[in-house]
Amino acid sequence: MSGFSAAQGERSAHATAVLGPELHSRLASTKVLLVGAGGIGCELLKNIVLTGFGHITLLDLDTIDLSNLNRQFLFRKKDVKQSKALVAARTASAFNPNVKITPIHGNIKEPHFDIAWFRQFDIVMNALDNLDARRHVNKMCMAANVPLVESGTAGYLGQVQPILKDRTECFDCIPKPTPKTFPVCTIRSTPSQPIHCIVWAKSYLLPQLFGEDENAGGELDEAEKQGENAQEIATLRKEQTAFKAVRTALRSTEPQSEGPSAAQMAFDKVFHSDILNLLSMADMWRTRAPPTPLDFDAIANGTFVLDKKSNGAGHDGRPSNGTNGTAATNGKNGASSTATTGSSSSSATKLKDQKSLSLRDSLELFVSSTERLAARVRAGEDTISFDKDDDDTLDFVTAAANLRSAAYGIPGKSRWEVKEMAGNIIPAIATTNAIIAGLIVLQSFHLLRKSYNALRNVHVQFRPNLPLSTIRTCLPNPNCGVCRDTYTEVLCDPARVSLGEIVEGILGSGESEDDGTGAREVSVYEGQRVLSDPDWDDNNDRTLESLSVTRGKFLTIADEDGELGTVQVGIGILPPNHPVDGPALILPTPLPKPPRMPKPSTPTSVPVEPPTSVKRPAPDDDDDIVPLAKRPRTNGDANRTEAVTPSKKRKLDEDGLLLLDTADEALGDVEVIEIE
Ligand SMILES: Nc1ncnc2c1ncn2[C@@H]1O[C@H](COP(=O)(O)OP(=O)(O)OP(=O)(O)O)[C@@H](O)[C@H]1O
Ligand SMILES: [Zn+2]
User: Fold this and answer.
1) Most distant CA pair in the chain, distance
2) Which residues are documented as binding site for ATP?
3) Which is it for the CA torsion 428, 432, 434, 439, positive or negative?
4) Among 58, 60, 72, which is best to mutate for testing ligand 1, by the most ligand atoms less than 8 A from CB?
5) Which stretch of 22-36, 423-437, 467-481 has the lowest confidence by average pLDDT?
6) Where is the Ubiquitin-activating enzyme SCCH domain (predicted)?
7) Domain that holds residue 16
8) The domain spanning residue 172 has which CATH number?
9) Is 492 a catalytic residue?
C-alpha cells in the first residue's frame, strides 16, 4: 500500500467496517446530486464527504446570508453574499482529499437540468425548503428513474422519505396541505386576527404602494366569481383607483410644497378614507364590530382615543384576551379615556424587536418606513417586495399591521412577532438538521444496496421518549398523477419539430410490442395548458418552440378514453454530434407503452365535462398566445383531477397569494406557518 492509500484506508476504516467493503468501495464511484446547500444541505454534504461518496454535484440558487451562519457550518462571515454551493463545496472538499465536488450556483428548475442530466446520477438527495422545487425534483427523478431521498425540518420536527419509482410512494403520492389562505374580503375588509392584518400589510398594502403597478382587478374579479359580496367588491375597486394618487406622490421627486406628506397621504387613504368607505356599508357591520377610522394628527399629538372595547387589545403592550372589539367609536369624539397613543414607556427597556408598539409608535414607524421605501423607489429600485431580512419592509409591515389592528380592535404584535408570522418563520434548529442529515445517508445506503425492504420513512418528533419513528414505505398511490404516468424522452430541435410530429411519433403504429400504442384520441398538455385535443388540432403544425415547449419541459399525452395511462414526454436536445442536416427529432426506442388503466370501480360521482363538449375558438394565425387549459386532465378518472393537474389554487398558493377559501375561515396564528 502506498502512503496515500494507507492514509485513505485509515480514514475510511470505520466506514468500511460499518458499510461493508462492497458498498464502501462503490461509494467512491457513486454519483450524487445534492440539491440545496442550506441548513440540511451543509450537514448532509459534510456527512457524505466523510462517508466516502466520491462524486458529488451540489446545487443551490442562493447566496450566503448572515442569518445562515448560526447553523450552516460550512460558511463563515467572510463568505456572506457568496454562492452557497461554491463556498460549501470549497469548505467540504478539504474534509476528504478523495472527493470531487462540482458546485452549481443555479436553480434546479432551469431547463438544462433535463431528464438526461438527472439520469447521470445514481442518487439524488433533496435538502430544499419549498414545495415547488421539491415537486420538481420528484418529477425529474420519476422521469429519469433515479432514487431520491427527500427531507425536511421544521423546528424540532423533521422527516426523511426515500423515494423509488414503482416501489415507494413519490413525494406527490400524498397531497400536501397547501399553505393556509384567507378569503380576500377577510383580508381586505373584515380582519379579525393579527395575522389577517399582517397578511394585508405584506401581501396587499406593500405591493400596492411599492410593488409592480399592476391592476389588481383580477383578484377582485375572481372574488366576485366566488360569490363574495358585490357591493364590498365595488368599494374595493374604488380603493384601487385611489391608490394611484398615493403611488404617484411616493414616487414624486418634486420638492414637497404644501399639504400632507406622501406618507401621510398613504396613511389617510388606507387608515381613514378606506375605513370610512367600509363603514358606509351598514350591512357589513350588523354582525361584526365596525372598525374605527384613524386620525393622523390626533395620533401624532397624543389626543387620539380608541374606544376601550375595541382597543383593549394590546396596543399598550399588554396581552389581551379580546380579539374582536365590539362597536368602536371614533375615539376623537368618544368619551373613553383609555388613550394608548403615547410612546410605551413600560416596554422601553425591552429589546427593540420585542417591544410592543403604542399607536403613536406605529404611526412614527409607518411614516419613517414609508419614507425609507419611497426614497429607495425614487433612487431607482423598481419594485420592493417583502423580505423578512429587509428592515425597511419589515418595519413597514409591522407598522401598517399594527395600525390596522388598532382600527379593528385586534391585538397588536411586536416587530419580532410580525417577522415570524410574515416571514413564515419556524426557528431552524441545527440539531434537527444534523439528525435528519444523518438519516438521509442511512436511507440512501438502503437505496444503493437495493435493500428495499429496509427502506423507512423516518420522523423526528417532539416526544422525548420516542424521538424517532419509522414507518415502512408504501407502494405508490395508484391515483398519483406524477409517478403513475409513463415517462419517456424525445431529443429534438424545438424550432424544427411540430407538436403533431411528436405526438404521432410517440403513439407510433402500435403494430409491434415496441411500436407504441398506435393512433388514439388524445389530449396534449404542457403544464396546465391544453395544446390539442381530439376536437382541436390547430397547434399540431406549430413548432414546439412557437408553443414554448422547449428543453426541460414535458408534453403530457392523455388518452381521451381513459383506457391507457398518461405518457409524459420530456423534451431533450439533440446530441452534440448530431449532423446539422440530420433529423430534427429522435424518438425513444422502444416507444412508450402506457399500462391499461383499471376501470373506475364506482360510477364517477363528480360531474366532469364531457370530453369534447366545448370547442374553443381557434387562435388567430398570427397570435402567439397559446390557449389556456380548457379543463383539467382527468386520465379518465374524474376523481383524479386534483392530483393530476396542479390546480390554479396550488399555483397561486405557491406564489404566496391570497385565495378565496370558505367565507369564514378562522385561523390561529400558528396555522399560517407553512411547514416545509
Ligand atoms: N429551486 C431551487 N434550486 C436550487 N436551490 C434551491 C431551490 N429552492 C431552494 N433552494 C435552496 O435550498 C436551501 C434550503 O435551505 P434552508 O431551508 O436552510 O434555507 P435557507 O434559505 O438557507 O434558510 P432561511 O430560509 O431560514 O433563511 C436554500 O439554500 C435554498 O437556496
Ligand atoms: Zn406518486
Assistant:
1) 93
2) 36-41, 60, 68-71, 84, 129-134
3) negative
4) 60
5) 423-437
6) 347-419
7) 3-178+429-472
8) 3.40.50.720
9) no
